[in-house]
Amino acid sequence: MKAFLAFLEIDLKLARRNRAVLFFNYLFPLMFFFIFSYAFDAKQGGTSVIVVTMVTTIGILGSGFFGAGMRAVQEREENILRRYKVTPITPVPLLLASICMGVILYLPTVALMLFLAHNLYGMAVPSNLFSLLIFVCLGAAAFRSLGLIIAAVVNSSQEANVLIQIVYMPMLLLSGATFPLAFMPNWLQIVTQFIPASYLVTGMSGILQRGETIAQNSKSVFALVVTMLVALFIAAKVFRWEKEEKLRASAKLWVLVVLLPFFFLGSYQAWSRQELTKAKIIHRDLNRSHNWLIQNARIFVGNGKVIESGAVLVRAGKIENVYEGSFPDAKSLNAEPIDAAGKTVLPGLIDVHVHLGASGGFPDDPTKVDPSKSSERALESYLYCGVTAVRSVGDRLDYMLKLRERFGTGEKLGTELFFCGPLFTVEGGHGTEYAQYMPEAMRASFNAQFVRTPKNAEEARKQVDDLAAQHVDAIKGVLEAGAPGYSFNRMDVNILRAVVDEAHAKNLPVAIHTGSSQDVIDAVALGTDSVEHGSFRDEIPDATIAEMKAKGIAFDPTLSVVEGFTSFAKGDTTLLKRSLVQQVTPKDLLTGTEHAATGEQFKGLREGLSHYPMSIEIGDKNLLKAWHAGVVLVTGTDAGNFLVMHGPTVQHEIELWVAAGVPVEVALQAATSNAAKLLRADNRIGTIEKGKEASLLIVDGNPLQDVRALSSISIVMMKGEYVVRREIFEQK
Known about the structure:
Number of helices: 27
Low-confidence stretches: none
Strand content: 5-15%
CATH topology of the largest domain: TIM Barrel
CATH superfamily of the largest domain: Metal-dependent hydrolases
Oligomer: single chain
CATH class of the largest domain: Alpha Beta
Structural class: alpha/beta
């Protein structure tokens, strides 16, 4: 210990006198700090985090390879180490002193970067500052150890410089220290998982940007610690006091031994893609931290209020302020301006009734369809069209859990997903018929994920509890007997009552599918939170409408689905010709659906549907009755059914409402704040108010005067991220 402390004291004294050490530890990182701050426009939101991460990584690499590696070689060549040889010590204290000296010298640099980023660019002080400092210390120690082993295996400064450059440059360029990993092609991102410095970058980004702890970066910490210990051991074994002591060229392979932990970790990560996923999420968070000022806009707030001219300030993914009339200059707010003159800003639209597992049509070649990829494409399509939240009310549970994970974390960019999970129905009830179209070997698995058919109240409650434990967002029940030729068994109302009561006990809202006025009467009596469809065959009684109003039950009329059914039955494919539908729907699906709606293959299906008792006129009447009575209205479309393609669903549903006689402002509120309340997410989405998430839609023109303007999309913003719509379908 005395030898170690003595060497540490000597190293620190020498470092203070060495201009090169001071330059590379302080001036060099400071120079990069301001270069990167300018390049990434650090005043605009959270890019200062990436600047601090990059500069800190570059500094650690420089301190390790040049500060430790080159300096040790120079001291051997200048016979400084020879003087220590005569003392009764081993190389270990000297090596440890070099490592600790580098860490001690570098910590003030990190503090300086944090100070500048906070005071110049408004970066928040890291919530886990202790974790950050520990991680930086481990990183600095590990890379100084790598530098020391390079110093041990080379025979001259010239050799050291060559070997350091061979190791240093890939780490500098491929780790994310100079170019974010998300900017690289997929194959190159996989290569980066074998680069030690990439774990340094993602670890610091996670701690700085996402508030992670050391424990959440355990793999990176483990690799850094193992590297430090192995490198220290090998450096001590091959340490040379004098320049006359030469090593064989093969000794340089010891550097590869030290890198073995990263080879194994890289192989695992190339398979699991965990770090690549984390890098995507970190990059998404960065995109969402940008500052924007949407100015000169008409603002439909979502709660009934309209600001004819104003501005919306978006900072760190949320709405920081809404200005009526005049507003500050964007530059004074450190925000990038978006001129929205002649445009209307709305909360992102919400569709509370979709089926992601169904396409809405018939692909040309069904064997080429991957259901999970189709569901991902659907969520991307919704966001492309400005629908920033959807609720799946009947899809495979396993698929929904995976989709929520991928899109909810930000790994992929798409609309926000809420879901009910499996349908509560009865054997032979509506929802069970879809399994008959599947190969027999797949039916059991499909039914297990798609439906729940409890035999009694106790079983029903247990099944609700199981779904609640998997954090579904709502529970859906089915009440429908169908029609002649398409009849279903109807669920026992008493069993469904157990479902509703248990869901409410678990604080979960309930949606009940209805097909007739009697179904609506029963659903309302059960205390459902929303009636899905209502009735397209008969009018809902006034007393039931009044009861819905009194109980605060939302009505989701889904006019789109009855229009889709009737259009398909007639062979009318006008719905496929809408511009947004053409933009987001895969071409093979459009072509196949066109053929199915007009060709001979599905003529029998179309003929059968033409006799199904459903009328959009009756749907219109029930909607108008509900509106006049003051029932809470929400927008759902039943997308995934015939000709109701995923994407611009809500826009067309609103057009149908307006055609039925509902004021456009009422329909828009149903698609924003009302829908958000039904999803129990109105504390963060659904209106343009201070503190809400900046999930916004900007359209050309004024949809309050011409509802078709809702489809003239100018900009979509998701949680503060400016969505590059042309790239949304190119995600990997």
